[in-house]
Structures are given as C-alpha cells and as structure tokens.
Amino acid sequence: STHLSDRIQNMSTSATLAMAAKARELRNQGKDIIGLSLGEPDFNIPDFIKEAAKQAIDDNYSSYTPVDGYAELKTAICNKFKRDNNLDYTPSQVVVSTGAKQSLFNVAMVILNPGEEVILPAPYWVSYSDIVKLTEGVPVEVKTSIDTDFKMTPEQLEAAITPKTRMLWFSSPCNPSGSVYSKSELEGLAQVLRKHPDIYVVSDEIYEHINFVGGHVSIAGIDGMYDRTITVNGVSKAFAMTGWRIGYIGAPEWIAKGCTKLQGQVTSGANAIAQRSVITALKAPVSKIQFMIDEFHQRRDLVLKLLGEIEGFKVNVPEGAFYVFPDVSSFFGKTLNGTVVNNASDFALYLLEHANVATVTGEAFGNPNCIRISYAASENELREAISRIAAAV
Ligand code: PLP
C-alpha cells in the first residue's frame, strides 16, 4: 500500500511556499498577482560573486568537497565572524551546509533527544517548529505581541524553562517581525540562561546585514554564552544568493563535529561552485552590498507610511530584515465584500482573492493576529500592492 511515514504526514507544508504556489496557480489563470509572500531579495547576485563562480568552473572545482566545507572557505568564515561579529571561531568550529536551513536541521539532529524542549519566541521563522518536531524535539512557543515589539522578555524566558529545556532558537533581525534585539536585551536573556548552563542557543543571524539601526549583536559574544551558542548564518539574504544554497555555523567544536558526521551520511559537502564563490563574497567588504541594505531601508519606510494610512492595520517599526508584520486582528469577525474574516489565514486568503496580493498568515509563524508582508519587491509593486490592499479592506 502507498502511505507516507507518520513523520512526513505529521509535518506541515511550509506556509510561505504554499502561498507562493497558490499565487502561481492564480497567475496561471490569468490574474495579475503581486507576490509579497517570499523571503527572497529581488536583486541579482553582485557581479564580482558571479565572476568567482565562473572562475571556479574553469578551474575545475568539480570533485566532492570536504564534508564540512573547503578549508579556504572555513577560514573566510572565521575571518567574517571576527570582522563583523567580533567572534573568535577556528575552522574546526565551522561547518558549511546546503543553506542555513540545513545548518539548523543539523543542529537539531545533533543536539536533541526525543521529548526535549526547544523554546521558540513567537513569531518565529516557519521552519523552526517543523524542524524541531521532525527531530523529535518539542517546540515550546513563547508568545510575544506588537506591544513588546515582538521580543521575548527575560521573565518570559525564565517562565518557559523546564527540566526538559534543551535549546532556545531565535533570529535577530527576526523573520517575520523584523525586530532586532539590542545588546541590553540580549544581556537580559543571557542573565537568565547563565542560571541554566545546560540550555544551548541557536542564534540565527542570517539577516545581520539587513539592519537599519546598525550594530548587530551576536549573543555568542555575551558573557558566558560562547560555549553554548550555535551561530547560524548564510549568504541567501545578504548577497541575494538564495538559490545557491550556502549556509554555515560557528559552534562549539563537539557540535560542529556532530554536524559534519551527520552531513557526511546525508548530503556530503555543499555545492563546490557555490562554495568557491562564497569565499569571494565573504572576503568582500560589507560596503559592496550596502546598496541593497539602503534600498530595503527606503522600502521599509515607504511600506510603513502606506500601511499606516490603512485603518485597522497596526504596524511596529521593524529594524531589520525585509518584512513587516502588521497586526490585523481588528478585522477579525468582520465581513468584507461578503467574506467572513475570522483569523489571519482568512485575511491573507481574502487579500489574495480580493486584492490579488500574496502575503503569509501569521499563524504559520506562531502569531495568529498578524500577516507577514515581504517588501523584497520593487517600489512600484509595493505601492500598487498596498493601494489594492487599502481598496479591498
Ligand atoms: N533562517 C531564517 C530566519 C530565514 O528567514 C531563512 C530563509 O528564509 C533561513 C534561515 C534559511 O536560509 P537558507 O536559504 O540559507 O537556507
């Protein structure tokens, strides 16, 4: 008989990818859909990185790579950690993977035993909870709201800790809220964690450069945290290299070794050409990608202004990443154009069908009051999309 494993049946399909598929379907029916559902920069990869990839092909980088990544790339990653984050990692603490998504999966596989709990400040990135469940861990959501800028307080962290807590996972800048934890906020969390030395922290810093307040802070650099933090990063967002699939970690050596062991049986090393090009990307000064950050900053301001003019949208001021996460709960229970909107999923679907704009329900991120709007789109598209949304509500 044909049946999928319980493991796969119990897994949810990525909501962001599902929304993108639905938008594609409507487009195929001839509808003019503006897609603001994907977390993907709309820029081309900078030319100097493309050149490095072409050179790598000509130089015959075609064999299997070391499972944990080329030595030269791992050294470039260590230098990047020092330069951007003031973190001292050695190459033996670094593992290169097929996207930060694989890095995260590796870490969960390597650290969690069945039934161990992972604290996820909500809203969190969609895949965290499913990765944790797939690896037989138990996600423990800590709800935050727009009133605390979607950040978890030390008191909330303390209250969520049980004898089974094994890890805390969070992203800053955050997907989906755009919130950035300041140094003093991270100090506050670290103060709680120092009392619980068995809890490990996954710090997902993939949006570090897309930060409009400056001063990205890595929790691994805070007193007592280095030996228990896995710093996750990658090139998808900062260098617009989503399809090239390179992510990496800096971590205690025993964790890095575990990830390499796992990867050695599952995927082997990440793509050779992509790895070679990332050496070049990471050696380049951040100023080379500043134009993208500036552009995102301008779009954020535009989107905040336009959404702010729509009655019923409550928006925080995201300090990083390229998303806004408006609270739309004031629409719940209302009938719009004959459609009853009871929750964020209804609302996102309503916008897709009546405004031809694809967003993502906050439910997928652990917050049922909000929707996520990606502003990785041109200014014209953003203006058009938001004016359609305004008309539809
Ligand atoms: N972490 C966060 C917070 C993300 O938003 C994403 C991509 O959307 C990833 C990790 C995965 O990135 P990658 O493309 O490197 O797998």
Question: What number of structural domains do the residues give?
Answer: 2
Structural class: alpha/beta
How do the helices and strands follow one another from N- to C-terminus? HHEHHEHEHEHEHEEEHHHEEEHEEEH
Mean pLDDT: 95
- Give the % helix: 25-40%
Number of strands: 14
CATH class of the largest domain: Alpha Beta
Annotation field: number of helices: 13
Shape: globular
Query: How far apart are the termini?
Result: 48 Å
Give a nutshell description of this structure.
This protein has 393 residues and is of the alpha/beta class. It has 13 helices and 14 strands. Pyridoxal-5'-phosphate binds next to α5.
Key terms:
393 residues, alpha/beta, Aspartate Aminotransferase, domain 1, Aspartate Aminotransferase, domain 2, 2 domains, 7-stranded mixed β-sheet, 3-stranded antiparallel β-sheet, 13 helices, binds pyridoxal-5'-phosphate
Secondary-structure blueprint:
Layout: H1 6-9, H2 15-28, E1 34-35, H3 47-58, H4 71-85, E2 94-97, H5 99-111, E3 117-122, H6 127-134, E4 138-143, H7 154-160, E5 165-171, H8 183-193, E6 200-204, E7 229-234, E8 247-250, H9 253-266, H10 272-283, H11 290-308, E9 323-324, E10 334-336, E11 339-341, H12 344-354, E12 357-358, E13 360-361, E14 371-374, H13 379-392
Parallel strand pairs: 1-12, 3-4, 3-5, 5-6, 6-7
Antiparallel strand pairs: 2-8, 7-8, 9-14, 10-11, 13-14
Helix pairs in contact: 3-10, 4-10, 5-6, 5-9, 7-8, 11-13
The chain binds pyridoxal-5'-phosphate.
Residues 39, 99-101, 125, 171, 175, 204, 206, 234, 236, 242, 247 line the site of pyridoxal-5'-phosphate.
